[in-house]
Amino acid sequence: MKILIRLLMLMTAGLVLQGGEPEQTNRIFSGEEVLLPYNGESWTLKTLHGRVIAAGTGEIRLNLAALEPGATQEAELQIAGQITQKITIYSPQPLAGYRFFTPLEIRPAEQKILQKRGMKLVDADDNEEEPEPAPKVAVYDHFPADFQGSLALVFPAKGDFPLDLGATWQQVSLVRTAAGGDLSITMDNTMQVIDNKGNYTYAVLTRPHLTVVVFNTQFKLEQLENLLLLKQLINGVEEAE
């Protein structure tokens, strides 16, 4: 079977504080300290309805009240009276409402982050006791021979590379975001492997009824942008079903 390989670049907007019309949206957590890269004139953070959330002069250091799990709030940052930035404020638990299968051998660090950010992890062996349908998403810290669910998120360690892709995949996509990464892929008549000698952020492998996403070893799961990427990937697979 011929495999389609795609190389994609996804650019994410960073924070640029300047005058004129706001063109970008910055995303921040509520419920924990956030430091924005600015130090100068007086500033005000307001909701779109005009309510002042925070204000100050010089350094923009925020510690906003935590939003409800899964909730967001839109705001505008004004510096010296001018709107310079659109801000989307997220709950400390942006993954609330998502349920994942997880093998018992998942690394404690990843499990702790996912649970802290609102995700419910369901042990595959105990799912019979769950009143809800089985999760469609599974989380792995390795590349297994068999996958559960319709979407698998794989967070391998450096020592796991190269990863033998094993089964024939209909399509393989390498995606590079603004954050970069270290993934590469080698596919010829003798081997099909993902390695960590390139500059891609994650790889997407697809075949009927299954999508596998392999993340690079520099992928920081605790960062908000990366948690939102997980949501985007999950929602995309669910919408395609």
Please give a structural write-up.
With 241 residues, the protein is mainly beta. It has helices spanning 108-116, 224-240, and strands spanning 4-10, 25-29, 34-36, 42-47, 52-57, 60-62, 72-79, 82-90, 99-102, 120-123, 137-140, 151-154, 163-164, 171-177, 183-187, 192-200, 202-207, 210-215.
Q: What order do the helices and strands come in, and which of them pair?
A:
Blueprint: E1 4-10, E2 25-29, E3 34-36, E4 42-47, E5 52-57, E6 60-62, E7 72-79, E8 82-90, E9 99-102, H1 108-116, E10 120-123, E11 137-140, E12 151-154, E13 163-164, E14 171-177, E15 183-187, E16 192-200, E17 202-207, E18 210-215, H2 224-240
Q: Which strand-content bin applies to the residues?
A: 35-45%
Q: Span between N and C termini? A: 23 Å
Mean pLDDT: 82
What is the radius of gyration? 20 Å
Q: What number of domains?
A: 2
Total of helices? 2
Compact overview of the structure:
By secondary structure, the chain is mainly β.
Keywords:
single chain; 241 residues; mainly beta; Immunoglobulin-like; eight-stranded mixed β-sheet; 2 helices; disordered N terminus
